[in-house]
Amino acid sequence: MVDISTDVLIAADAQGKIRRIGKACLQSWGYSPEDLHHRRLADLVHEHDREDLDQSLTKQRGAERELTLQTRFLHKDGRAVPTALRAKWSAADNAYYCVAQVLPHAAPHLAESGSTDASRRLQSLFEHHPDGVFAFDLDGALIEANPAFSGLTGYAHEDLLSMRYQTLIAPEHRRMVTERFVAASRGIASCFESVGVRKDGTRFEAAVTAIPMTADHRIVGVHGIARDITQLKNRERHIERLATHDSLTGLPNRNLLDDRLRHAVVQAERSGRRVAVLFIDLNRFKVVNDSLGHDKGDILLCIIADRLRQCMREADTVARIGGDEFAIVLEEVSMPESVITVARNVLSAIERPVRLEGHQLAVSGSVGCSLFPKDGTEAATLLRNADLAMYEAKAAGGGALRLYKADMDERAKARLTHEHDLRRALERDELVVYYQPRVDINSQAIVGAEALVRWNHPERGLVPPNEFIPLAEEIGLISQLGEWVLMQACMQNRIWQNAGLPPLKVSVNLSPMQLDPDSAIIDAVKHALRSTGLEPRWLELEITESSLMQNVESTLIKLEEIRNAGVSISIDDFGTGYSSLSYLRRLPVSGLKIDQSFIRDITASRDDEAIVAATIALAHTMNLTVVAEGVTTEEQIRFLHANECDEVQGFLFGAAVPPEELAQLLRHAPRSRRIAIH
Predict the structure, then answer these.
(1) Which of 15, 362, 549, 569 has the most other CB atoms within 10 Å of its CB?
(2) Burial of 398 per CB tally in 10 Å (0-12, 13-18, 19+)
(3) Exposed / middle / buried, residue 216 (Cβ in 10 Å: 0-12, 13-18, 19+)
(4) 412 with 358: CB under 8 angstroms?
(5) What is the CATH number of the domain that holds 45?
(6) Is 589 found in the same domain as 444?
(7) CA–CA separation, 228 vs 193, rounded Å?
(8) Rounded to an integer, what is the distance from CA 288 to the centroid of its chain?
């Protein structure tokens, strides 16, 4: 500490000889510590100040309070250096402990009268110092100020003279500043922060040093330095706000939410009232982000944040947790029913349409709610339970509200177990691929097969994809799973061809997430073809109509590259999305599959008949192959044949089967299923 201090720290014996001195003496007085070892302190000061220093140190040995005085140490080059010296006698160590602080200022009247050069140097230092330097008499009247202090306060030098320091201080800080002024007038220097008031009424923040001003061995006033730290404090406040508030919406962030929720729980414990936590998630927000861009998504988030603010009381807290998730803390809740009313108001506010740069946007919210003390007595528990309830609401569809119930914990634990099992399913080879045949409607020969993944769970048996694919997408496992299915399908098709079976095209479904801008689907396709030796023409990728509308430009680039590699692309579940005809014309696809929801009632619903017939005609005008999914009756086959559908797929021609069973169909009965279609 002695060596790194910017002030000169000194230990001296009873005669004032230096035992130890800090390295700051080199910068302050030009001497190294070795130069000053065993030298008397009094020998280092100006000759006019030596007697005063010796007498003061002698008196200090019997005093309890520390000595504070201003003196002039002599620099190694001979010039006087105004210095504030504080000394304390330690009887136990038989030594003085001193702190010497070089004063960066000196009022002209304090300079040595007999030293004209020194006086000029001190005058120059005083006038040109960048910080405000000032002096007050013991009555608090300003007796000297440099130009920087005038600039800081906005008062001319003439106006400042004889002003009292209280005039320059913000009212709420005057008591504290007075205490520091009184302390300095009694020999105790200090540093502190305060708020000043300029002549025009504006405020500034300042770091102030108050130092006793002595003359003829007595304190005659207070010397000070004031540095403007307004910008520094503003930066500190900005950093603090970033740590506690969301930078986009300006709402409290998770850190501040946790703090306020804990405070609300403590208050509720005292008052016997309730606290409610609402956890809110926006539905279909990703579609907005992907279709219009993240900048528009950010604007939408700010609009929703403002609406949530307007729904709440001043005492309540609205916070953004992250992404499209928000949380609300409702304090002083008297009746649980009032929470339901607030939650419904929140949902209504979110659902109001938003007009954004020519686009009419509609989003909905899912809200989960927990109550203190029924659903938890700690902030973290309340927030977690509200989150669980929100997931239940989200599963129920847009605009839903769910209150937390104890059995949600069990479902959450079951979901975690399911997630853990799914992650290990790939490692344990529990996943298998089944293949559903696709049949030419005229020849009724098997011309293709759709690869469909199944989970052969050790306890639950064969689990269909609709029970685990959404979970794989949610936990970020879908790309790995999709690439595995792709590799298995290419490998199996190559095995069939090597066995001399009739060649057929195997189609593999792609998740929308596999078409994200940063996905590696193109590399995965090329790797699967290269590793298995399968010709690209025998592979088809099926992409849902809705996934095509996400990240439109990025998706088009990826699909173009896949088609250029020789792999065909088909639109799956056609008719369930919202793609326009002009957009379909741009897609590099070779076929489409009519969703089974239209095929199911094709012979009973005129609307479905018209939709299917129009879809087939439209596809043929665009040179696309049409496949009908979910065919289960011969009447459906006759209608599809009459409307010139190309291929069919469904239980009428076979369910998805293991690869060995499909091989048997290809080998022994490729045309065994003949249906009268005329």
Answers:
(1) 569
(2) middle
(3) exposed
(4) no
(5) 3.30.450.20
(6) yes
(7) 10
(8) 20
Q: List, for residues 202-253, the tens digit of each pLDDT value.
A: 999 999 999 998 877 789 899 999 999 999 999 988 888 888 999 899 999 9
pTM for the whole thing? Answer: 0.51
In-domain check, residue 453:
yes
For residue 104, how many C-alpha atoms fall within 13 Å in the half-sphere facing its CB? 16
Judge if 267 and 373 occupy the same domain: yes
Q: Are residues 187 and 57 in the same domain?
A: no
495 and 634 share one domain? yes
Q: Which of 398, 473, 468 is nearest to 432 (CA)?
A: 468
Q: Residue 300 belongs to what domain range?
A: 245-405
Q: Is the peptide bond before 252 cis (omega within 30 degrees of 0)?
A: no
Beta strand ranges found along 229-307 (DSSP E): 274-283
State both tokens at 59.
Answer: 């008196």
Least Cα distance to 471 among 404, 524, 423, 541 occurs for: 423
Going from the C-alpha of 182 to that of each of 105, 185, 191, 211, 367, the distances in angstroms are 21, 5, 13, 11, 59
List the beta bridge partners of residue 332: none
Do 198 and 263 reside in the same domain of the chain?
A: no
Beta pairing partners, 283: 364
Q: Does 560 lie in the same domain as 620?
A: yes
Q: Which residues, 6 or more positions from 163, have their beta carbon under 8 angstroms from its beta carbon?
A: 141, 142, 155
DSSP letter for 576, please. Answer: S
Q: Which residue has the tokens 């298998």?
A: 432
The torsion of the CA quartet 585, 587, 590, 593, rounded to 10 degrees, works out to -90
DSSP 67: E
What pLDDT, in 10s, does the model give residues 602-637? Answer: 888 888 899 899 999 989 998 999 999 999 999 999
